Amino acid sequence: MEEEEQQQEQERHRCEKIIAILDKAIKDGPWDKTIFLKASGKNLRELRAGLHAYMEALKGPETAESNAATGTQTRYLTVYISL
């Protein structure tokens, strides 16, 4: 069990490093200059969001346990927007 926790911690650490690199690239890049760069910037932002969601999923069981211990629950609200 301890080995699995170490692997998850290493995975989280790698995710944090990659997210930091993506944040810098997104911030510093000229993503509004051409259509190609706009699409590339969008892909980088989507990749970052997906990686962040993955990292949060790795934290999932710990968060659920701590919420159960404190008596708090996560609530979701579905919002529909008409255009």
Strand content: under 5%
Shape: flat
The secondary-structure element order is HH
Question: How far is it from the N-terminal to the C-terminal residue, by CA?
Answer: 49 Å
Pfam family, one: Dot_icm_IcmQ
InterPro entries: Dot_Icm_IcmQ (IPR013365)
Key phrases:
83 residues, Dot_Icm_IcmQ
Quick rundown:
With 83 residues, the protein is mainly alpha-helical. The protein has 2 helices and no strands. Helix 1 runs antiparallel to helix 2.
Account of the protein in words:
- It is a single chain.
- This protein is mainly alpha-helical and 83 residues long.
- The protein has one domain.
- Helices cover 76% and strands 0% of the residues.
- The chain has 2 helices and no strands.
- α1 (2-28) runs antiparallel to α2.
- The mean pLDDT is 81.
What's the SSE blueprint?
Blueprint: H1 2-28, H2 35-70
Helix pairs in contact: 1-2
